[in-house]
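Hello Y.,

Per our agreement to keep a running log of every chain we model this quarter, I'm adding this entry. I've kept the format consistent with earlier entries: sequence first, then predicted structure.
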Amino acid sequence: MTPLDRPRSLLRAAAAALLALLAVPAAAAESPPAPYYSVHLATAGSKAKALEALKALAGEPAARAEKRKSGYLIRFGAWAERAEAESAHQRYRAKFADARVIQIENPVDWLMADGSIVTVPGSKNAGPADTTPTDTTPVAEAVAKPARPEPPAPAPPVAVDEDAFRAAAQRLDGEVRRWVEAGVARADGYTYAMDVAPLLLYAALRRDAELYARLYDAALPLIVTGDGAAAGFVLWRTKSGSDPEVSGSAEALWLARALWAGHRLLRRPDDRALALRVVDGYSRHARGDQGAWHVAKYYAFGTQTLASLSLLPSYHPDFMEETEPFAGGRAKGIARRSYALLQRAVTPSRLLVPLIQPSLNDVLPGIGVNLYAPNGVVALEDSCAAAEGALRGVPQLAKNVLAFAADGSRRDANGRLYAYFHRRDGRPVGQQPLGSSGVACLARIAVAQKDSRSLPALKAMLLGDLRVLADSPQSVSAPLYAAGPMLLSAEALGAL
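Predicted structure for the entry above:
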């Protein structure tokens, strides 16, 4: 709060207290301009029930019911500072199960206990939900349909030399085969799941049995065998003689998809059973924590516990829906829950919040935190990963992401998309450009959506990445990790 804001806050608090003490008729009270903080207590199904509920709030400042689409919302207070609302909230936490502090940005008129109506500046009766926090407030997003954005600024026209693109893709394909033949372990001696699994999927899609067999042999040690609690888990990384460290749910999805494609396209019957074993292991990463279902990012073997957070790449409901009939009981319902979670993660910018972390409810009790954008920042690549995983079930996610990326204001001076953006208005955050795997993901969903307008610019970015990796693999910390997503995109684009 600035020194200029402080007197205004004190005046608001004093006015609210004075009105309560003098019992000034509610209709004569003037509501403050939004945004402001209030305490939400309950929802009433009718006006009569709302008026009855308000009797219990006699003496509370700005006690009212707000008529919105979900019913009459029982609330009180209109404070400029959250701390004042938090203090008032403590008195009602034990009395109302739904009691929580909210920030109101879209006000509606107030129904007071005496039946009068207070007209609120800028109000729209039965308007939209009003719990959207400021950019720095770590509160759950609850936006199934984002606000309609301004028309995007058109990106500059881009011409792509198709022959050059095809040549670059074929050259990287040849380089990758040389690298795989020499071994897939990195300099530290570890084989990483995300170096192997996307390339294994690429080999299956290419129906290249020789490349698939080489990568399959490298992938097998990453899958936990036996009948223990971790059976079917996919390790983040492994090397001979090392103990398991952590599993990865995103890694499991990639490897299961690759094995499933190997079964279907290369007629490898044993790979079907192995894919379903990995699906079962992935399913054991799913959990209900503090009333919020999610798929944990990893399992730590040292502590034998699942992580308390989840990220968007840990969801691929299209694939889970395809395999659910064959995978057994643990996988049942994961696709449906994943679709619903991803839809709830959409922000006003049309990108998705990157974190699902129910444990934040311990830190901020009573406000239902589980979907979270740290500092109000969302990641374009993670949003694309979620959209790619739900292309069949929720195609609107991909349309949203592609429309967002088509805005020329979201690129740097070199025409490269930025990586991070504000969740509300989509303004770039920082200068970091989108990585090659993010560009590759956008290209794949553009192909799937038949979005011919987005493809030229994406192919131009991808062409540069293909050339850099093929020409200077030493400049990239993990060449195989970078190569898999790009070759999958080149395959989708028909360049191979």
